[in-house]
Each structure stands twice: as C-alpha cells, then as structure tokens.
Amino acid sequence: MVKIGARLKARKDGDQMVLKPRTDVGFGQRAVELPKQIEMHIGQFLCPFCLHAGTIGSFLIQLKKGFSSSRGRCPECDNGFMLESLTKRMTPEQFAQWVYEYPFYYYWKKCAWLLFNQRLKKIGWSYRFWKAYKACKEEDRGESYEEHMMKEQEEWARERGYI
Ligand SMILES: [Zn+2]
Questions:
Q1: Residue extents of the structural domains in the chain
Q2: What pTM value is reported for the model?
Q3: Ligand 1 mean position to 100 CA, how many Å?
C-alpha cells in the first residue's frame, strides 16, 4: 500500500507541475507566460541600437514573476528599451525620426556605431535613413551626415581612450 500510495502521490505531483506551474520558483519555460500585449508578435525584430535581429523572446527581460511587459533588452549590445520601440513597425524615415528624437547624446553613445551602420546598409535602409535623419536636422554642415556622425563617434571614442 505504501508503495502504491507513494507512486500515486508522485504522479499527482507530476501532474500538478504541468497543470499548475508555480511561476514564483519556475519549472522551466512553460511556467512563464508572455505578456498579453506582446504574445502575438512573431518573427524577427531589430534592436533599435545595434539592429541585432531576433525573436521577441530573445529581447524579453525575465523578472521574478514572468517577463517585463514594458521593457526589453538586447541580448547582443545589452541596451534596454521600451518593448513598444522594438515591436513598432517603422519605415526607415520613421526610424530616423525616432533616433533623432531620442535624447541625442544618449542614442549615439548607446549605439554600436559600426555594426549599426553595416546592418543599416545590409537591410537597405542606409540611404533613406540618413536622408530622413539629415532632414530632421535643420542645419547642413556641408558634409554627408554619415561622415559627420562618424567623426563625432570617433571623437567620443578617443575622449575615452578607446582608440
Ligand atoms: Zn542591440
């Protein structure tokens, strides 16, 4: 009787793990549900700072009880951002405006510049992005904006002794 009882109990516990997972301690991935507003998003998303491409799950921040429903983090460059910024479908022009409106100083310091530029070219956004970005900026410095940003980024790196 004892043996059977123990076996039944084990089976019951086993069932419970599946049917009623305890999210506070976590029994693997199935215990944690995606936040309602983002669970419908499938496919690839681009990190707004380095353009790393990944599924929504790779950008989620694990909290004690599930995932953050408002903030995400890039697994590659480790920058944090609002999930809304990640999942919003943007044209190159809208993205340029988003970058421009992001507190300037901070965006370009967070941005993995060379990688960002390479990937921007790869997805065919370079021309439209920089054109729109330049349009956001009223002044024309007489050099392409890409060149200008390259210089600024270099200056910043030099200041910190990176190069
Ligand atoms: Zn990134």
A1: 1-30, 32-88, 90-159
A2: 0.60
A3: 17
